[in-house]
Amino acid sequence: MMQVFSKKRAQKILDDGAAEVSDSKIDLALSNRQRIINKVLHNASLTPYLSHVKTLFNLLQDYVKGSYREIPWWSIGSVVTALLYILMPLDAVPDIIPIAGFLDDAVVLKLCLDMVRKDLDKYKMNKVASAHDESDATS
């Protein structure tokens, strides 16, 4: 199945999407949060990434609110592209094709997670530190 959809093709999708990202695309991803999460939940090749997808949405939400901006624009673009790609019914391999139709979604998402791993780890550490600071302030 991986021959149908290569890592190279996934890289091109993410690169092109990151180059074209805009505030309206970020808003589009955020406004479709539940639809995208539902698609991940009902898709065996995407389900293992559920917690990652939720973290990506939290990152975007914090970015839009301005509470977290320590991430390159390119990484934001890749995240938005990967999330919106999951939503698209007619992507490289249509989702109506059993198994293969969702594998390309998983390849794009996995590649995105690999590419933004350092940014995501930094974001998660920031969230832990923020929560720790808040608990110190309230005690």
TrEMBL record:
Bilayer topology annotation: Multi-pass membrane protein
**Keyword entries, A-Z:** Membrane, Transmembrane, Transmembrane helix
Please give the chief subcellular localization of this protein: membrane
Q: Where in the cell is it found?
A: Endomembrane system
DUF1232 domain ranges (all copies): 78-109
Transmembrane stretches, start-end: 71-90
- Identify the InterPro entries for this entry: DUF1232
Q: Under what name is this protein listed?
A: DUF1232 domain-containing protein
Organism of origin is: Zhongshania aquimaris
